[in-house]
Amino acid sequence: MAKPDPVQLGQVKHYFINSHSIHDEVNASIFESLAIEWCNEIFLTRDTVVMCGGTGLYIKAFHEGLDEIPLINIEIRNKIIENYNELGFSWLADRVRESDPLFFASGEMSNPQRMMRALEVIQSTGRSILSFRKQQKKQNPYRILEFGLRVPRNDLYRRINERVDLMMESGLLDEAASLLPYQHLNALQTVGYSELFDYLKGKSSLEDSVSMIKQNTRRYAKRQMTWFNKNESLIWLENDFFNKILADYQVS
Fold first, then answer.
1. pLDDT category of residue 9 using cuts at 50, 70 and 90
2. Is the dihedral of CA 68, 147, 5, 161 positive or negative?
3. Where in the chain is the domain with CATH 1.10.287.890?
4. C-alpha torsion angle, residues 194, 195, 199, 203 (rounded to 10)
5. How far is CA 246 from CA 147, 152, 235, in A?
């Protein structure tokens, strides 16, 4: 969804694009292993790797490492996803509160994906997902510089709304319709698909579904900023920094 177009993919070598099926299991731990493997490959011929994106947990996994979490019973996972799709966020919040009060009190109760992950872990293992987290950071062999782009809120929200409109114009609804038979898969429990699945099942109007995509994306962006603002090593760049760099090096 909203991946780089063929021209962009041809200009710069991308990883984790067109690399997995929706049927594949991909989590932060798997991402960590693959990212390290590909970085080692790239560093054989290049000096620099650029990792970009906004999923803080995945970046943290690469930077600091994650503990191995036991394999999850797929029937438990599918049942949780099914119940969440049918009963909604309030059901999920209640189940996490009852099953894993430690996670419930952790301040991470705004992300359904993380909440479902916590629920499936404790139902499969009998232990809170927090008990698997490392107490010490791993020693990363790379020299890592972390940068964040700071965009004025009004500008950010305008861009989000415009991006959703462009995705709809580019065929997001048709894509969601083709994926409806697989809506139970973990890979599709994301902003953009979930709201359009509701429309395709007659639970909401198309206008309301698109509006919810925009709203939920703005909420996700807010959670991203909260996460990254806690990172003291992050170097913040203002939104127009690239234009300023070009202006500094412009040849008259």
1. confident
2. positive
3. 154-225
4. 90
5. 18, 21, 19
Q: Which has the closest alpha carbon to 193: 174, 207, 219?
A: 174
Average pLDDT score, the chain: 87
More confident residue, 209 or 189: 209
In this structure, what token pair is assigned to residue 63? 């930077």
- The segment with the largest mean pLDDT, out of 65-74, 84-93, 162-171, is 162-171
- Candidates 2.30.290.10, 1.20.1440.60, 1.10.260.40, 1.10.287.890; CATH matching 154-225: 1.10.287.890
Contacts of residue 42, defined as CB under 8 A and 6 or more positions apart, other chains included, come to 49
Local confidence band at 248 (pLDDT 50, 70, 90 cut-offs): low
Closest to 193 measured CA to CA, from 218, 211, 214, 176 = 176
CB-based contact 186:81 (threshold 8 Å): yes
